[in-house]
Known about the structure:
Elements: H1 2-17, E1 21-32, E2 38-48, E3 54-57, E4 64-65, E5 76-81, E6 84-86, H2 98-105, H3 112-138, H4 146-157, E7 159-162, E8 167-176, E9 181-184, E10 187-190, E11 197-205, H5 216-223, E12 231-234, E13 238-239
Parallel strand pairs: 4-5
Antiparallel strand pairs: 1-2, 2-8, 3-7, 5-6, 5-11, 9-10, 11-12, 11-13
Amino acid sequence: MRLFYFLFLISFSVVAQNPKLGVTITSITTEDISASNTEYHINYQIENKTSEELSFFLLPNALIANTASSLTLYPVYRMYQNGVFEDMDGPFFEYETEDELEYAKIEDKTSAEAKKLINKIQTKQSYVGKYFYKKYKDEGGKSEDFQWIYQRQKLLNNIIILKPKETKSFTIKTLWNKNRFIKNDDLEFYLDENNTIEIELILDLKTNLFKDQLSEEDLVKINANPNFIRGDFVSNKMKIEFKE
Length: 244
């Protein structure tokens, strides 16, 4: 019994130390862009550690806080102060496109610049939605649910494929509004620049939770692929500064 337990622990340890994917934050850069905003670039890599091609759903250039991440395509982030995890809804928020990031930087949302940019964003979204709808119908799709068609194609467009032993690099661009007090329901957290603050990324890869956004044919194809992976893959922690 002891031998079996010992061998089980060895097996578990090997699996734990050799996940299919390696996630590594490589660097974090910051730039003060205004009195109220600092831009952060979080650079990271995803490595396929196997000898098989791997696929998974991920929108790699945005991020979302752990506390708000129940159903997301984004990498999830966790914040630590002096080694202690703090489940705060912030300080960063998701921006899927450069235009969304630029809009967030504009302090006066009633300005001509802001109105022009939001119109550009809406025009692009409308064009993409119509393109997705036409593509779906041209392929013989039967649904008339425009929102479902849009979400389905967005999901299918965000399948990452890694060849055996391949590593891909990504950059997440986001903002900190220099607010040090961050609330999460009844809890309030404070980003103290004198503390050691760290961030880690988690790839919370799912398929079944997206089943309502996919057709039965999509699900059959994905589930038939043994290398379309699920699971949690956690990065290293990296120190991150919140100084003014």
